[in-house]
Amino acid sequence: MIDETIKETRRRMETTIENVRNEFGKLRTGKASPALLDGIVVDYYGSKMPIRQVANVSAPEPRLLVIQPWEKPMLTEIEKAILKSDLGLNPSNDNIVIRIPIPQLTQERREDLVKVAKKIAEENKVAIRNVRRDANDKLKKAEKDHDISEDELHRSMDTIQEITDQYTNKVEELLIKKEEDIMEI
C-alpha cells in the first residue's frame, strides 16, 4: 500500500516535470526550435492536426525554421495557421517549403517571456504540491482504516515530502535554465 502510493506519487510528479519541459519548449528564446510550433494546429481535410503530423519541421540554422509539408496543398494551410498564432512569426512560402526567420528578441519581450516561464513553473509547483496532498490523504485514510500504523504514516509522509522537494527543485532548475536561454543575447 505504501510502496504503491509512493510509486504513484513519483509517476504523477514525473508527468508534471514533462509538462514543464513541454511548456518551456513552446516559449520562444530567439533561437530556432521545431518545438516552437508544437502548439499550432492546421486544418487537414477537416481534422485539426499538429504541424509535425503533416510536415517535417527542422532548424537548419540558429535563426531559421524550415517546414516541408508531405502534401503540397498543406503549404497554404500551414502558413495561415502560423500567421494566426500569437508567436509573431512571418513565414515565407516558396511553393516547396515554408521558411520562418526567427527575429531577435527585444529586452522587453525577453522579460515578458521570463515572467511567463515563472508562471508556468509556479503552476506546476502547485500541481506537485497537489500530488503530495493526494498521497498524504491516501496515507491518512489508510492509517484511519488501520491498514498502516501511525509510525508508518509519519515515515511515509516524510518520504512523500522528500520526493516533493526533489521534484519542486527540478522545476526550479528547469526554470533557471529557461531564464538563461531567454536572456541570452
Q: What characterizes the major β-sheet?
A: 4 strands, antiparallel
Please report the total strand number as a whole number. 6
From the spread of the alpha carbons, the general shape counts as elongated
| H/E series | HEEEEHEEHH
Q: Provide mean pLDDT, rounded.
A: 90
Structural class: alpha+beta
Report the sheet-strand fraction. Answer: 5-15%
Count of individual helical segments: 4
Radius of gyration: 22 Å
Spans where pLDDT lies below 50 across 5 or more residues: none
Terminal CA distance: 51 Å
DSSP helix fraction: 55-70%
Oligomer: single chain
| Major sheet: arrangement of strands | 3-4-6-5
Structural features:
185 residues; four-stranded antiparallel beta sheet; two-stranded antiparallel ribbon; alpha+beta; elongated
Overall description:
The chain is of the alpha+beta class. It has helices spanning 2-26, 74-84, 107-144, 150-183, and strands at 41-44, 47-50, 55-61, 64-69, 92-93, 98-101. The chain is built from 4 helices and 6 strands. Strands 3-4-6-5 form a 4-stranded antiparallel sheet. Helix 3 runs antiparallel to helix 4. It is elongated and about 70 Å long. The mean pLDDT is 90.
Could you outline the blueprint of secondary structure elements for this entry?
Elements: H1 2-26, E1 41-44, E2 47-50, E3 55-61, E4 64-69, H2 74-84, E5 92-93, E6 98-101, H3 107-144, H4 150-183
Antiparallel strand pairs: 1-2, 3-4, 4-6, 5-6
Helix pairs in contact: 1-3, 1-4, 3-4
